């Protein structure tokens, strides 16, 4: 069945690959981005997630129902941009989603692109909940100051919030006949990979080396496209890590699991 799916951050990276994949399988894509594009989309709607007025205008510009929504747009950690990172990656994304939910038909799917950087949400739950109470830019600036956030912590926090927000919405979305999941990529070879290398340093370099390479936008888009399809109908409320094994070997290191697979010494 031909489906109508909204994708944010559609002009480059994972969003562009997702639009191409959806269009190739016969879906209609409504693309949102700060940069105009016409590639693999049926309709383009300007969107600056750092600007509440732009978010509201984008919501108003959407006409008709949706069968899916992928919240893909985001900012990497950059100096002096802690508030903007939180605004774009979580606060603005949440505001846009709240405005688009009434357009979602029964059977629709929402996919939020989070990150492996959000994997430590359990250790930071109270801070995530404090961020969840923030609704406007003045309160956000005050939050960044009071929490003493640098851009790297702001990025991690924004992705922790996306993961937990997705889980929190699961029951409500099921009540609407809608599925919601998040996807947490590891390092992905896009134009902002250098930003992550600067922010996370040797830890990211080691992870990529152990995985053999960074992921590709197409590999993440493939997973998002699956979650937006009817073939994934029983997958609801999860965070799916797509990281080339980074989460697995980090867990094994942290928990000392080597003994589980060690070859026993000869008797």
Please supply descriptive tags for the structure shown above:
single chain, about 270 residues, alpha/beta, Rossmann fold, seven-stranded parallel β-sheet, 10 helices, about 15% strand
Describe this structure in words.
By secondary structure, this protein is of the alpha/beta class. The chain has a single domain (4-241), classed as NAD(P)-binding Rossmann-like Domain (Rossmann fold). The protein is built from 10 helices and 7 strands. The chain has helices at residues 13-24, 52-61, 82-100, 125-132, 137-147, 151-175, 193-200, 202-211, 217-227, 246-255, and strands spanning 4-8, 28-33, 43-46, 66-71, 104-113, 179-185, 239-242. The protein has a 7-stranded parallel sheet with strand order 3-2-1-4-5-6-7, with helices on both faces. Helix 3 (82-100) links the parallel strand 4 and strand 5 (104-113). The longest helix is centred in the middle third of the chain and has 25 residues, at 151-175. The chain is globular. The mean pLDDT is 95.
Q: What value does the Rg take, in angstroms?
A: 19 Å
Q: Provide the residue-averaged pLDDT.
A: 95
Helix content: 40-55%
Q: Shape from CA axes?
A: globular
Distance between the termini: 62 Å
**CATH top level assignment:** Alpha Beta
Q: Give the CATH superfamily.
A: NAD(P)-binding Rossmann-like Domain
**What kind of oligomer do you see?**
single chain
Q: In sequence order, what are the helices and strands, one letter per element?
A: EHEEHEHEHHHEHHHEH
Tell me the strand order in the biggest sheet: 3-2-1-4-5-6-7
Strand content: 15-25%
Number of strands: 7
Under the CATH scheme, the architecture is 3-Layer(aba) Sandwich
């Amino acid at each position: 069945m031909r489906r109508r799916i909204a994708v944010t951050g559609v002009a480059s990276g994972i969003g562009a690959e997702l639009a191409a994949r959806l269009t190739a399988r016969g879906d209609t894509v409504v693309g949102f981005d700060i940069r105009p594009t016409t590639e693999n989309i049926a309709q383009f709607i300007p969107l600056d997630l750092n600007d509440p007025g732009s978010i509201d205008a984008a919501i108003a510009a959407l006409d008709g129902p949706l069968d899916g929504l992928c919240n893909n747009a985001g900012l990497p950690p950059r100096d002096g941009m802690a508030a903007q990172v939180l605004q774009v990656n979580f606060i603005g994304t949440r505001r846009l989603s709240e405005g688009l939910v009434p357009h979602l038909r029964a059977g629709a799917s929402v996919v939020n692109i989070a990150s492996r950087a959000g994997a430590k949400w359990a250790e930071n739950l109270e801070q995530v909940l404090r961020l969840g109470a923030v609704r406007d830019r003045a309160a956000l600036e005050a939050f960044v100051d009071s929490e003493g956030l640098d851009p790297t912590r702001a990025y991690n926090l924004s992705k922790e919030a996306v993961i937990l927000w997705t889980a929190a919405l699961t029951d409500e979305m099921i009540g609407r006949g809608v599925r919601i999941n998040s996807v947490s990529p590891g390092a992905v070879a896009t134009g902002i990979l250098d930003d992550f290398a600067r922010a996370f340093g040797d830890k990211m370099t080691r992870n990529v080396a152990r995985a053999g390479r960074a992921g590709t936008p197409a590999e993440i888009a493939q997973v998002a496209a699956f979650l937006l399809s009817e073939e994934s109908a029983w997958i609801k409320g999860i965070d799916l890590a797509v990281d080339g094994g980074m989460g697995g070997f980090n867990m094994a290191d942290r928990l000392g699991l080597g003994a589980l697979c060690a070859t026993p010494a000869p008797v």
